[in-house]
Amino acid sequence: MRSHTLRPSADPDRDRIAEIWHTSASLPDVGPAIMPSRAELRRRVDDELASGWQVTVAEEADELLGFVALRPDEAILAELFVCPRHLGRGIGKALLEHAKAKMPGGFTLFTTSANKGARRFYEREGLVAVREAPHPRSGHPVTYYGWRGRAAAGTTN
After folding, report:
1. Angle subtended at Cα 68 by Cα 60 and Cα 150, rounded to the nearest 5 degrees
2. Cα(145)–Cα(122) distance, rounded to whole angstroms?
3. For residue 2, what pLDDT is reported?
4. CB-CB contact of 95 with 80 (8 Å)
5. 65, 77, 83: which is closest to 9 by C-alpha?
6. What is the domain partition of the chain in residue ranges?
7. What's the whole-model pTM score?
8. Which of 13, 66, 75, 127 could lock 82 by a disulfide, CB 3.0 to 4.6 Å apart?
9. CA distance 14 to 7
10. Residues with Cβ within 8 Å of residue 131, at least 6 apart in sequence
């Protein structure tokens, strides 16, 4: 297994971030039933970065493998996606650990309720399902998760 590194995103990464987001969210049970186009997600990357997203990318040999988008001031992990062909290599875990380090007091996130792989991953990594609700944009069912933070009593994360 080759190693990857994490680094802050840069402007030239925006196209690849949108591509990873689109490819990953297009997998069965991952994204909404009607998936936004690559162009729509590319515009959203620009909009979200302009409104405060902090994005960190996982990279290996100049190839982006995944990303995490955070809103630390709001304690929100907004997006975490790994290129499908790189799943199972610890990239998602590294990106989630980065989020935990950046938001040590805890955070929330949501994932598609039908996304069993993501739900198992988050639960294995110490997050707790707190509620189900409609997705704020598309209305499909999502499950909200919370991570209480490193200072929470009894937490070993």
Report:
1. 110
2. 8
3. 53
4. yes
5. 65
6. 5-147
7. 0.90
8. 66
9. 14
10. 143, 144
Q: What is the pLDDT of residue 34?
A: 78
The CATH classification of domain 5-147, taken from the options 3.30.200.20, 3.40.630.30, 3.40.718.10, 1.10.3110.10: 3.40.630.30
The structure tokens listed for 61 are: 């040999």
Query: And the tokens for 87?
Result: 């799943």
Distances (CA, A) of 93 to 19, 42, 58, 86, 100: 20, 25, 11, 12, 10
Q: Which residues of the chain have pLDDT under 70?
A: 1-2, 151-157
Tokens found for residue 109: 């996130």
CB 135 within 8 A of CB 78: no
**Are 53 and 83 spatial neighbours (Cβ–Cβ below 8 Å)?**
no
